[in-house]
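Hallway conversation turned thread

IA: we were arguing at lunch whether anyone had actually written out SAM-dependent methyltransferase end to end. Turns out nobody had. So, for the record, here is the sequence (273 residues) and right after it the structure tokens. Reply here if something looks off.
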Amino acid sequence: MTVQATLTATPVTADFDRQYGSFLPGRWVPAPRFVLRRDRILALAEGLRAGKMVEVGCGAGSLLCDMALRGHDCTGVETSSQALAIAAEMTAGQDKATVRSTSSSTWDRQFDLLMSFDVLEHIEDDASALAQWVGWLKPGAIAVLSVPGHRKMWSPRDAWAGHFRRYDRKDFTDLVEQAGLQIERVECYGFPLSNLTHWLGNLSVKGQDYAGGANDTAGATAASGTDRTTHVRLFGIQRSLLGRAAMSLACLVQKLFLRTDLGDGYIIVARKP
């Protein structure tokens, strides 16, 4: 199934916030950790020439909107039916954004840019998955990827979200290089706010086995990108003057620690030879 984000039957209900990006009021909003990661992704993508882009595991589609607004011709792949429906609604009205549930056999060397954020940890055979994605890239194309950091930070929330693992720096760099990419930049983002939200996230899922009330890891993976129950309740605070100031400060402060291993997630920018 392919869902075209420009279908007129899809209501255009997404809002756009200059600080936080696209969101669906009362349904999907950007959590603080998403905001921290988005801040770095947009900064790292700043100098990229607009081209043909694929985002694997696009979730609710908010970053697809960001990249489409920058002129990229964006395709999002999302296997979760819940997330796919939200992404179609989120990107409705974006002429340069399309979402679909599967990849295509015609994608060999078709894309200028690959993006995938906090997806590999949900895939048991992450090496095979990444190798397939890299095959979709043209020579010289760029990949921007993120994963949750540090094996020692494994927690109940990882199990709740359907993760198979967290990654140490070397785990991630080895994975990317073995897929045939040349690493140009590695960042450890989020410190200190995301470290705090990691701890708070464990409290928020206490007593829950899997995201969205799922029964297993696969179901948790499908729901983890769209289960925003707690964040929807708190989004008003996040959009208040004080909340905006705090998030702006957090985005600035994390820049001081990008070359350390203090944050709770890694981002890699790499190029296909």
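OS: looked through it. The beta strands are 2-3, 15-17, 21-23, 52-56, 73-77, 97-100, 111-117, 137-148, 182-189, 265-271.
IA: good, adding that to the notes. The first strand starts at residue 2 and ends at 3.
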